[in-house]
Write a structure and sequence with these properties.
The chain has 354 residues and is α/β, with parallel strands linked by helices. It has ten helices and 18 strands. Helices cover 28% and strands 25% of the residues. Bound molecules: pyridoxal-5'-phosphate (PLP).
Length: 354
């Protein structure tokens, strides 16, 4: 018997999702950087993305990039989070390009690259309203100037990231602004930008709407490839699989119990109150999976199940009329939060299906 909990990773479906998006975006003149940060740098998943035609791989963690490097994944690697000063040596050694917003960091990357006798590519991230990383528009030209001055640094282009911290949607207005900034920089400095990276999976709706995509020539896609969903509304993307990665958990208790607790009620283990609605007796099914294994709120449940509560180790559900025997394995689809938590949990086995 296979161990539970486990993630089952279907490489064929991931490949299908990736190649479908690569093809659709190619029609708009946009390439795809495959984002591996939710996969702990899995070389098998990286391989599926590369076979699907992504132009390179992006990850927010240098550890994951190093893991792919050790596995000899043959791809250009971009660190898509601003490098920590404490990691610049590792960044210039293992990443070809990094996303940056701080001149101090770029300057240290330059020194480290010179020391290592390498060159390192820089994409400058621009703030367009979501208020995560990004250079304010008025500071961009100065930052470009300073970047161009630094030895062993190659200025590759600009990018932006939306729909993350504040949920600001990529649209014709903010994307046109990024295109305009690309044009202004090229005119001011007499150069051609390699990369104008418009954003993440949340950009797909805009990119595939038939709108003018301007100068945007790359998107960085993770969630849409792995989960087949559009992160703006979490709807399935037409023609993609939402079950390329599933989580399997095992039932450890199945009993008819009252829906209401008894005794004097204080705080729960996680500090939340539990005014569960009184629905008389329920068929209570407990699965051996909890907050140490996933984000219980991020699971898509089989139709008969409803979550009643979760602890670090238990998922307590109402299984309706059905008694689900102990030992039964149940399969869940995941949202991004649940996926990341399960991928990074040492308690969850990862099973790759070719
Ligand atoms: C995570 C991340 C992405 C990928 O986002 P998805 O929604 O998973 O496609 C792209 N760019 C940056 C900067 C990120 O941090």
């Amino acid at each position: 018997m296979m161990t539970t909990p486990r993630l089952e990773i279907n490489l064929d479906k991931i490949h299908h999702n990736a190649s479908t998006l690569v093809e659709r975006l190619a029609n708009q003149g946009i390439s795809v950087t495959g984002v591996t940060k939710a996969t702990l740098g899995s070389p098998e998943i990286a391989g599926a993305l590369l076979r699907a035609g992504v132009r390179g791989l992006g990850d927010s963690r240098i550890e994951n990039i190093e893991a792919m490097h050790r596995a000899r994944v043959p791809a250009s690697m971009t660190l898509i989070r601003s490098p920590m000063l404490s990691q610049v040596e590792r960044v210039v050694t293992f990443a070809d390009v990094s996303f940056n917003t701080e001149v101090d960091v770029i300057s240290k990357l330059s020194s480290a690259a010179r020391e290592a006798n390498r060159t390192h590519g820089i994409v400058l991230m621009v703030e367009l309203g979501d208020l995560r990383e990004g250079i304010m528009r008025g500071d961009l030209e100065d930052t470009v100037r300073e970047t161009l001055r630094l030895p062993n640094i190659v200025f590759k282009g600009i990018g932006t990231n939306l729909a993350c911290r504040s949920g600001v949607s990529p649209d014709a207005t903010n994307m046109a602004e990024l295109s305009a900034l690309a044009g202004e920089i090229e005119a001011s400095f007499g150069l051609t930008l390699d990369i104008v990276s418009g954003g993440n999976s949340a950009n797909l709706q805009w990119a595939l709407s038939g709108a003018d995509t301007g100068r945007i020539n790359d998107l960085r896609l993770g969630e849409s490839i792995l989960l087949g969903r559009d992160p703006l509304h979490r709807q399935q993307i037409d023609g993609l699989f939402t079950d390329a990665i599933t989580l399997i958990a095992e039932v450890i208790e199945s009993k008819r119990k009252p829906s209401q607790p008894w005794g004097e009620i204080a705080q729960t283990a996680f500090g939340e109150g539990t005014p569960a609605s009184d629905r008389g007796y329920v068929m209570q099914t407990i699965l051996a999976i909890g907050r140490q294994d996933t984000d219980p709120c991020g699971l898509y449940l089989p139709p008969m199940l409803e979550i009643l509560g979760a602890s670090s180790d238990h998922l307590i559900t109402d299984s309706g009329c059905d008694r689900v025997p102990v030992g039964t394995e149940l399969t869940f689809q995941l949202n991004y939060s649940a996926l990341v938590r399960s991928m990074t949990s040492p308690f969850v086995t990862k099973v790759i299906k070719p």
